[in-house]
Amino acid sequence: MAILTIESTCDETAAAVIADDGQVMGSALATQTELHEQFRGVVPEVAARAHVERILPVIEMALAEAGIPPEQLRAIAVAQTPGLAGSLLIGLTAAKTLAIAWQKPLIAINHLYAHIYACQLGRETSIYPCVGLIVSGGHTSLYDCRGPLELRYLGGTIDDAAGEAFDKVAAMLGLDFPGGPAVSRAALEGDPKAFSFPRSLLNKPNFDFSFSGLKTAVRYELVGPGEKDFSQLDLSAQQVADICASFQQAVIDVLVAKSRRAVTDSRAERLCVGGGVAANRVLRAALQQAADEDGFELIVAPPELCTDNAVMGAIALEKLAIEDFAPLSIDIQPGLQRGR
Ligand code: ATP
Ligand code: MG
Ligand code: FE
């Protein structure tokens, strides 16, 4: 027996078939990067429309790979919060429709809890309790995770998410979208100390982050205040590399400092990291160094499970075990529900 998981919170349409024991039997993912590239960001209406076109083929592919008929499914699980309203709606509507047609219970997944759960996949022992760090295009937050379904919000960004800052800096420099991989590639050749960019809220005794001042500092380094045209920049490859490396280091310094403080404060034994920015190698290395120094365990989700996917929807098995099903009347919740 297995469950079907559906993910459509942002710009990835994904489905997976996961066996009772956690084994991934089938998985399919359609990315929309090429649709949003020209806008250098995810356009909600474009994303929703693309989900409509892709969701059924993606579900069919996952089921075909698993090679099981719908009768053998025990439940239909779907990421229902948080995310873009139009995107969430497509996934939830598909899940409800299949739940009715195949007479299966519905399970609602919190997408952020699933990002942390990505660290659990393939592990014999429980990663919980732990401190969870989610760093993606839409989120940068720390949680005290007592169990897979029991997360307490410690703090998060008060403006831009870390991934969003990478994307915006890449746009200013004319680098590819999404910006994270492009900026980190350019940073390889750069000097992280070339520019001293701000580390906002670094010494504030809370777990909040702010990246919009950093983004503005990079901008003023490139053009004057009020100037919006970045097309006339005449930067050498070395200058671009130095800006990328210095910017990346500023983001990493704050992420590492706040995460290790959260681990200490919560007396946690491990830090579990998920979300697209967790794919960043320099961040991983810096977190590992902090873990070695402070004596906690670091678990970062495998790179392919850092960005949005349906495999991390395996967290639905935890809800299946306690029969925590959602009523068919359940609606999407685009906003972040911190207490749940
Ligand atoms: P959500 O925030 O809802 O989880 P999302 O699609 O914005 O959705 P992800 O798919 O988890 O988030 O991650 C995408 C983000 O990760 C982008 O902002 C991208 O620039 C960033 N990213 C990807 N690879 C790297 C990297 N190597 N270094 C830094 N950032 C990266
Ligand atoms: Mg994405
Ligand atoms: Fe996500």
UniProtKB/TrEMBL annotation:
Cofactor annotation comment: Binds 1 Fe(2+) ion per subunit.
A Pfam family matched in the record: TsaD
Residue intervals passing through the bilayer: none
CC cofactor: Fe(2+)
Catalytic activity: L-threonylcarbamoyladenylate + adenosine(37) in tRNA = N(6)-L-threonylcarbamoyladenosine(37) in tRNA + AMP + H(+)
Enzyme class per UniProt: transferase
Keyword match Acyltransferase: yes
Protein localization: Cytoplasm
GO MF annotations, alphabetized: iron ion binding; tRNA N(6)-L-threonylcarbamoyladenine synthase activity
Coiled-coil annotated residue ranges, if any: none
Domain of life, per lineage: Bacteria
One cellular-component annotation, GO: cytoplasm
Keyword list, A-Z: Acyltransferase, Cytoplasm, Iron, Metal-binding, Transferase, tRNA processing
Binding site for substrate: 134-138, 167, 180, 280
GO BP field: tRNA threonylcarbamoyladenosine modification
Assigned EC number: 2.3.1.234
Positions contributing to Fe cation binding: 111, 115, 308
Domain Gcp-like: 24-314
Role noted for this protein: Required for the formation of a threonylcarbamoyl group on adenosine at position 37 (t(6)A37) in tRNAs that read codons beginning with adenine. Is involved in the transfer of the threonylcarbamoyl moiety of threonylcarbamoyl-AMP (TC-AMP) to the N6 group of A37, together with TsaE and TsaB. TsaD likely plays a direct catalytic role in this reaction.
NCBIfam families: gcp_kae1, T6A_TsaD_YgjD
PANTHER family hit by this protein: TRNA N6-ADENOSINE THREONYLCARBAMOYLTRANSFERASE, TRNA N6-ADENOSINE THREONYLCARBAMOYLTRANSFERASE, MITOCHONDRIAL
Family note: Belongs to the KAE1 / TsaD family.
Protein name from the UniProt record: tRNA N6-adenosine threonylcarbamoyltransferase
Lineage, broadest ranks: Bacteria, Pseudomonadati, Planctomycetota, Planctomycetia, Pirellulales
This protein's encoding gene: tsaD
